[in-house]
Design goal:
The chain is mainly β and 135 residues long. It is built from one helix and eleven strands; from the N terminus they run E-E-E-E-E-E-E-H-E-E-E-E. The protein has one domain: Elongation Factor Tu (Ef-tu), domain 3. The termini are far apart.
Length: 135
């Protein structure tokens, strides 16, 4: 079953093959500045919306048809090149803009006797990438 994709990275669940995410969260905020006034409370000024952030975890397991080391390497390359891609879930783009991998965290849970990774969990942090300057 096709869940979605981030650029060339598909999210799929099928018999013997699991490549999806869990613990998905999305965060948004406004940008504010504070103007200090002597003897009074400061005045807040709304500057506009801030970029959105998405976090999720992916688990890559060799027994589920994945090569954990190659999967993590692909995410590292996207992070290190700063490539912006569209995030698609349920056939629809998430948000109005592209996303970049801001950071990843890796936790290896199982190794084989030869030192190969059998299972790794990756925390992925995406940040909205606005391509244009709106004036």
């Amino acid at each position: 079953m096709y869940v979605g994709n981030f650029g060339d990275i598909p999210f799929v669940v099928a018999s013997g093959y699991v490549r999806t995410f869990r613990e998905y969260s999305r965060e948004s905020a406004g940008r504010w500045t504070k103007h200090d006034i002597i003897g009074q409370k400061p005045v807040l000024e709304f500057l506009g919306p801030d970029v959105e952030k998405i976090r999720f975890k992916m688990m890559f397991r060799a027994d589920q048809g994945m090569n954990p080391e190659k999967e993590v390497q692909q995410l590292r390359e996207l992070r290190d090149t700063g490539e912006a891609d569209v995030l698609i879930l349920a056939g629809e783009p998430v948000g109005e803009n592209s996303w970049v991998i801001e950071s990843i965290g890796e936790q290896v849970t199982f190794w084989d006797a030869n030192g190969n990774v059998l299972s790794v969990t990756v925390d992925v942090a995406l940040t909205e990438y606005v391509e244009r300057l709106v004036i």
